[in-house]
Amino acid sequence: MDHHCHWAIIAIFFGFHVYLVLKNRTTIGDMIDPKHKNNPDYLQYKEQQKNIYNQGKFWNFIFYFGKNPLLWLIPVGKPLGNGYQWSKNEKIEKINIQQVKQIQNQKFRINEEEINSIQQTEEGILLQTETEMTDIENQPLNKKNKEQIQNTNQITSATKSYKIQDSDIDQL
């Protein structure tokens, strides 16, 4: 059985490369481990994007092996392309552009909502500290009240220093 092992390995490699040809992919492209593979934005982008150079199984096969079926297993002749430029699938390219725009719009809306919620919570802290200060000011001064006044002043100044300006929103 050992004398058939090398044919099994060749058949596996042949099958894998036929799969790559039909999908118009390369072994290098499949081996590259993206740095951002755990980034949710990358995963969403990768999930929705399609290969713009994929012309369909039949035309991908013809592109690599040639138009003449008699020469498919004999490595002679010129390839169809010039090796520098490849034809793009216009439908997939338009879909990809639309999906990228949708993702960008969705990200912008999420960032805008986060900024609004931050502004609302900061205003809530400011209101809360102002009411605490009036309650504390009405009480007689002692060591505990002085510490409370200092703490609320620190919180108030901290929230005021981190106020988000309209110019910050415009930059997003």
TrEMBL record:
Keywords: Membrane, Transmembrane, Transmembrane helix
TM regions (residue ranges): 6-22
Name of the molecule in the record: Palmitoyltransferase
Provenance organism: Pseudocohnilembus persalinus (Ciliate)
